[in-house]
Write a structure and sequence with these properties.
With about 600 residues, the protein is α/β, with parallel strands linked by helices. The chain contains 13 helices and 38 strands.
Length: about 600
């Protein structure tokens, strides 16, 4: 088919469907989308609550204990504690299975099932979590606190998008690293402090886009350097003396350095996209991938499009897929599918050897499901009701046709036929409880106007015992009684960062600060998280031209170190980038960037 331009029924903006896209939709037997790629992504993200946790009662029969849950108690969701939900002590089919009703839209029936089918309190794999009760969307964690979207992490706290890390605090999108603090997009780093997009580095502070470096401070775009400060070389002795002068054990010294370093970073050219070991890709933060377009924060992805937040093992032949990975293929409009999955459509939280599943939520080790919730080790089920193979194969096409003939309309009169992901208004979470708020932030008014729900913070039962300005400036001045204090957050709830208004220092965290000689934070974990992800570019692309103007950058801030291929003329290269045209950063094409850093 030829390229087509459509109008998104949500944002009313134009979007394009390419011939290759139509080929994919034909292959997996789905109609083309009626929402644009960004609105489709937001719609999926609005179903994922990672960090907003509550205390509520367990709803399992004979259980009344309090559990930590991602579902608030004011939601009509049935919640079981982790151990009971993962056990064989209850039968999910006998409890909630229902007949399909052809007189009502499918999504109305699915919403009823979603409200009565038991859910595990958290999205974690029992029993792989060890002393990590306050972590969510994770597996194989040990001694972790408020770590989310993570696998194989030990002795760490406050982070997301983490794989195989140890002794790390306040980090995001970090892999195979140890003793790191306040970092974003780190890989194979050891003792990386307040650094961004660094790989294979050791003992670095306030560095950005550095690879193979050690004992570097405030540096940017360096490769295989040692003993550098603000991109200038020093001897080992000179380096150690200069670092001592910076007084980084002091909070004031640390804060002043952050401001100074940001100014330094802005003076150097940025690569049009972040990534390594790729072939034929577009997007940002892409690693070990090929033939992948509009990919963001992904690793090991092949022959895919509109992919985000995959971080482990191969993902092949997928469209509109967000989160997880690990041996999946032929997925469409899905969220959190992994550990072996094939031919999954319009589903969320379906994992562990799954295939041929549509419109399902929280199912595992299953196949041939349609519109199911909370099933384990099942086949040929519709709305949690068991069918024979023949009955299932006869009924599913009828339901698909029914979804086309009797679509669901949400409160904004957006039409949901077969081929669309779950409407956000069916989500168990408010928009600002989910990661949609992190990637596409909205105010309360904007959220309501766009047809999402908003949840005001619940009243917190605590008394602040020390204000952030009253904390000791130097880590060596902090006494053990800091563990008994409730510390006020500097933002005082006045930001749009899901501020918790107060926080505590946990024992293992305090030991880390003492070991690394770092000052105590003044912001709550949520506000610190938003400060880190401010270093991350948005999940969208702009068409731009390289800003290398010959000997200097367009704005004449940066002077090239060598002659580029275009010599004294302006670079002609164009590209897609996550840096919007109005931003102040200097953005170079791949050739010009590599000429300056290699």
């Amino acid at each position: 088919m030829n390229q087509e331009t459509k109008i998104c029924q949500n944002c009313k903006q134009q979007f394009t469907i390419e011939p290759d896209d139509f080929d994919f939709y034909k292959k997996i037997k789905v109609p083309p989308p009626t929402f644009c790629p960004e609105c489709r992504l937001v719609r999926r993200l609005a179903w994922r609550n990672e960090s907003t946790l509550y205390r509520r009662k367990c709803d399992a029969p004979g259980h009344s204990e309090e559990v930590i849950s991602m579902y608030p108690k004011d939601k009509s969701v049935v919640v079981y504690d982790q151990k009971y939900w993962w056990s064989d002590a209850w039968d999910e089919l006998k409890q909630v299975g229902q007949e399909y009703d052809f007189s009502r839209p499918f999504f109305e029936q699915f919403r009823e099932l979603l409200r009565k089918a038991p859910m595990p309190a958290l999205t974690t794999e029992y029993p792989t979590m060890v002393r990590s009760e306050y972590s969510n969307w994770a597996g194989d964690l040990k001694n972790c606190y408020l770590i989310v979207d993570a696998d194989l992490v030990e002795d760490s706290a406050y982070g997301s998008g983490i794989v195989q890390c140890k002794d790390c605090y306040d980090i995001d999108f970090t892999r195979y690293s140890e003793l790191c603090y306040f970092g974003f997009d780190l890989e194979k780093c050891f003792e990386a402090i307040y650094s961004v997009s660094c790989k294979d580095c050791y003992n670095i502070y306030f560095c950005k886009d550095c690879v193979g470096c050690s004992y570097c401070f405030g540096c940017v775009n360096l490769r295989n350097k040692k003993y550098y400060i603000f991109n200038q070389p020093y001897s080992k002795e000179e380096y150690e003396k200069e670092i001592e002068k910076l007084n980084l054990r002091s909070y004031k010294g640390f804060a002043n350095t952050k401001v100074q370093v940001q100014e330094i970073w802005d003076k150097y050219p940025k690569r049009s996209y972040r990534g390594l070991y790729n072939k034929n890709v577009s997007g940002d933060y892409i690693y070990h991938s090929k033939n992948t377009h509009y990919g963001f924060l992904v690793t090991d992805v092949e022959d895919s499009k509109y992919i985000a937040l995959t971080h482990s093992k191969p993902t092949k032949g997928c469209y509109d897929y967000t989160d997880f990975g690990d041996n999946v293929q032929n997925l469409y409009e899905c969220m959190t599918i992994g550990l072996g999955g094939e031919n999954i459509k319009f589903s969320h939280l379906v994992f562990r050897i799954v295939r041929d599943i549509e419109y399902s939520y929280w199912c595992m080790r299953s196949s041939h499901l349609f519109g199911c919730v909370g099933l384990k080790d099942r086949q040929y089920c519709i709305l949690n009701k068991q069918y024979s193979k023949e009955e299932y194969e006869k009924l599913v096409p009828q339901i698909i046709q029914h979804m086309k003939d009797m679509p669901y309309k949400d409160k904004k009169v957006r039409v949901y036929k077969y081929g669309e992901f779950f409407p956000p208004e069916l989500s168990p979470f408010a928009y600002n409880e989910t990661i949609a708020q992190e990637y596409f932030p909205l105010t309360k008014q904007q959220t309501t106007e766009q047809g999402y729900t908003w949840k005001d913070p619940e009243k917190r039962d605590y008394e602040i015992t020390i204000q952030p300005q009253d904390l000791p400036d130097h880590i060596k001045e902090v006494k053990d009684d800091i563990l008994d204090h409730v510390i006020g957050c500097e933002h005082k709830g006045r930001c749009n960062h899901q501020c918790r208004t107060a926080f505590r220092i946990i024992p293992q965290e305090f030991q880390f600060y003492q070991k690394m000689q770092l000052p105590l934070p003044r912001l709550c974990p949520s506000c610190r998280h938003y400060e880190r992800i401010a270093q991350r570019n948005p999940l969208k692309l702009w068409h731009r031209t390289c800003q290398c103007a010959g000997e200097k950058s367009d704005n004449e801030v940066y002077t090239n170190t060598i002659e580029h291929f275009h010599k004294d003329k302006h670079c002609p290269n164009e590209f897609e980038t996550t840096y919007a045209p109005e931003r102040k950063e200097i953005v170079y094409c791949e050739k010009c960037y590599q000429a300056e850093v290699v």
